[in-house]
């Protein structure tokens, strides 16, 4: 192996080790104070233990934009949410959306946030094809955030249940059988608060 290629491989391994250590520590670039202030607690409505990580701590400190290109918060405080990390090239994402569209029977999925790695606009045709209404569409706000998300979520789809206090209740990588998805769907349509 030529010296230049060897140096490149060593550099990549070094970056992977440093990046892996920061992820294992939960180091998302946000200070503890900013994380605490981002977790809004609604009295008497806890659905996760107080020790559960806030969405910002668990998901990372990145920015998302909506269809209009405006920077928006990933999580809306006060509302339980199912975040689905997707990609327009992901066959299992399309399968999950097809099943969700069939299960909804026209009911809006107002508690679904579809975070599409290629951008919010890339998620719109995926939802339209399956006649899914009411879902919130977001995407990374720039190439740096897209890279961070891609490394943070190496597989799509990934489903994340976030309670009304902004804390992560449950995470599910991949697409399960349709019967398991019904628990997550119940949150998306507002029938229950946690899967």
What structural class do helix, strand and pairing data support? alpha/beta
Helix proportion of residues, in percent? 40-55%
Number of strands: 7
Give the strand line-up of the largest sheet: 2-1-5-4-3-6-7
Shape: globular
> What's the CATH architecture name?
3-Layer(aba) Sandwich
How far apart are the termini? 51 Å
Please tell me the total number of domains. 1
Using the CA coordinates, give the radius of gyration.
18 Å
Number of helices: 7
- Summarize the biggest pleated sheet: 7 strands, mixed
**CATH fold topology:** Glutaredoxin
- Beta-strand percentage? 15-25%
Question: Could you state the CATH homologous superfamily?
Answer: Glutaredoxin
Layout: helices, strands, pairs:
Blueprint: H1 3-24, H2 32-38, H3 55-59, E1 64-65, E2 71-72, E3 81-86, H4 91-104, E4 112-116, H5 120-129, E5 136-140, H6 143-152, E6 158-162, E7 168-173, H7 178-188
Parallel strand pairs: 3-4, 4-5
Antiparallel strand pairs: 1-2, 1-5, 3-6, 6-7
Helix pairs in contact: 4-7
Walk me through this protein's architecture.
This protein has 195 residues and is an alpha/beta fold. It has a single domain, classed as Glutaredoxin (3-Layer(aba) Sandwich). It is 41% helix and 16% strand. The chain has seven helices and seven strands. The chain has helices at 3-24, 32-38, 55-59, 91-104, 120-129, 143-152, 178-188; strands spanning 64-65, 71-72, 81-86, 112-116, 136-140, 158-162, 168-173. The protein has a seven-stranded mixed beta sheet with strand order 2-1-5-4-3-6-7. Strand 4 (112-116), helix 5 and strand 5 (136-140) form a beta-alpha-beta unit. It is globular.
């Amino acid at each position: 192996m030529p010296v230049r290629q060897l140096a490149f491989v060593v550099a990549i391994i070094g970056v992977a080790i440093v990046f892996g250590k920061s992820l294992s520590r939960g180091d998302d670039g946000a200070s503890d104070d900013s994380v605490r202030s981002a977790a809004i607690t609604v009295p008497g409505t806890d659905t996760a233990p107080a020790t559960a990580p806030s969405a910002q701590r668990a998901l990372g400190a990145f920015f998302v934009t909506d269809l209009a290109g405006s920077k928006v918060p990933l999580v809306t405080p006060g509302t339980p949410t199912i975040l689905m990390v997707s990609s327009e090239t992901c066959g299992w994402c399309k399968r999950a959306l097809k099943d969700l569209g069939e299960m909804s029977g026209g009911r809006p999925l107002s508690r679904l946030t579809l975070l599409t790695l290629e951008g919010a606009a890339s998620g719109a045709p995926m939802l339209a094809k399956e006649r899914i209404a009411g879902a919130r569409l977001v995407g990374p706000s720039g190439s740096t955030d897209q890279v961070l998300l891609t490394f943070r979520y190496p597989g799509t789809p990934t489903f994340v249940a976030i309670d009304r206090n902004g804390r992560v209740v449950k995470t599910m990588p991949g697409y399960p059988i349709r019967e398991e998805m019904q628990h997550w769907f119940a949150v998306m349509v507002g029938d229950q608060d946690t899967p």
